Structure prediction request, 128 residues.
Amino acid sequence: MKIEHLAIWVTDLEKTRSFYERYFGATAGDRYHNPTKNFSSYFISFKEGARLELMQKPEIPGLANPAQEHLGISHFAIAVGSKEKVDSLTEKLRTDGYKVAGEPRTTGDGYYESVVLDPEQNRIEITI
Prediction:
């Protein structure tokens, strides 16, 4: 078995799609829109086969502080291939105005990673 995809609710579907395409090399499929349910989404695919569904429905309430830890999915990790790529992508995101929530480091369980927040304040671990 494998996880087929993860889905996240977003307020700005196009901005979030562009973020994953630009910084993580994801490719978006066609935008799906269901006017009856006031729902739109994109499936975005990563080179190694993982997929993320970005979903938008205006009446879904947001969290008071989405960047703060909360129950539910805490984060997802994207492997970029090397320590140098973790460092350079983290700096690129910082320079472009995205929040770095965890500086690059080796964790107690042996991962080299940083943590950044996407445009919707979802936590992404950038790892080797």
